[in-house]
Specification:
TPT_transporter, globular, transmembrane, transport, sugar transport
Length: about 325
């Protein structure tokens, strides 16, 4: 029985330090890239979010390929089975990229971060449907508190933008699907986390370039006036590098934690950005309801974090009860 237990418990027996560090790494990368992208798309009025996404994919491909050549990391060489193993991640990946970049510049930073909370219940739902996980009531209540706060805050938005709302809600759907399917695909016996990142970017960079050309996005990027501005170029390259770090940290956090935990970490980060936006962003329109909603979101996120650290959020797999019964009989 001990051998069976050892084989079935790697995820449950994972030490807490990698879980916490991977979550902090993901939260930091996600925080930084939102600020940099906001500067590029809003402060500099860069007109080509798809072109920026291509830069981030290209950075990911180059960094991982050079690392593989230098034997720093390892992932499988290409074969015919890889597209089948990855599907539908590449489609979700490009949808997540484009919708995320398209929504950032269309909404105020605080409002953008509030609407991103809807990723959480979508992730919870997809983990139940696709991965067969079950969460205790305390976790579900924490998630509902975050959503309640988002509804309250969004209901008082004084700068409503239908196009921005549409893009950010699409981004929520793609982000939830990306997190859950990534958790499913990063099995080390298959592609592993580096293989998932590399082949995702490889498969989608060419179609994204075609989309960029056909929509005029690429032409707008080449005609942009600030390519001679050193500070703009630095922030553009920084965004490309942070795009790679964000993808890597997302996979790492999902590997050590659940996809839901990764999503909640992102939500807590977004609320922190909202608080900062009130002080330094310049585009926040204060209202009592919005402020109350943000605080409810933060309370729900902190409650979830507390439950996770206590270990109450460990998702139950469908076979857990049967395994417990068999162990008690033996």
């Amino acid at each position: 029985m001990s051998a069976g237990q050892a084989a079935g418990e790697p995820a449950a027996a994972a030490p807490p330090l990698p879980k916490v560090l991977s979550a902090l790494f993901y939260g930091t990368c996600s925080f930084l890239i939102v600020l940099v992208n906001k500067a590029l798309l809003s402060a500099y009025s860069f007109p080509s979010p798809i072109f920026l996404g291509i830069g981030q994919m290209t950075a990911t491909i180059l960094i991982l390929y050079v690392s593989k050549l230098n034997k720093i990391i390892h992932f499988p060489d290409f074969d015919k089975s890889i597209p089948v193993k990855l599907f539908p991640l590449p489609l979700i990946y490009v949808g997540n990229h484009i919708s995320g970049l398209s929504s950032t510049g269309r909404l105020s930073l605080p409002m953008f971060t509030v609407l991103r909370k809807f990723t959480i219940p979508l992730t919870l739902l997809l983990e139940i449907i696709i991965l067969g996980k079950r969460y205790p009531l305390s976790i579900i209540v924490s998630v509902l508190a975050i959503i309640l706060g988002a509804f309250i805050a969004a209901g008082s938005d004084l700068a409503f933008n239908l196009e921005g709302y549409t893009f950010v809600l699409l981004n929520d759907i793609f982000t939830a699907a990306n997190g859950v399917y990534t958790k499913q695909k990063i099995d080390p016996k298959e592609l592993g986390k580096y293989g998932v990142l590399f082949y995702n970017a490889c498969f989608m960079v060419v179609p994204t370039v075609i989309i960029s050309f056909s929509t005029g996005d690429f032409q707008q990027a080449t005609d942009f006036q600030h390519w001679t501005n050193f500070l703009f170029i630095f922030q553009f390259l920084l965004s490309c590098f942070l795009g790679f770090l964000l993808m890597y940290s997302t996979v790492l956090c999902s590997h050590y934690n659940s996809a839901l935990t990764t999503t909640v970490v992102g939500a807590i980060k977004n609320i922190s950005i909202a608080y900062i936006g009130m002080l330094v962003g310049g585009d926040y329109i204060f209202s009592v309801l919005n402020f109350i909603g943000l605080n409810i979101c933060m309370a729900g996120g902190l409650r979830y974090s507390f439950l996770t650290l206590r270990g109450n959020s460990k998702p139950k797999q469908p076979g857990d009860e049967e395994n417990a019964l068999l162990e008690s009989k033996s």
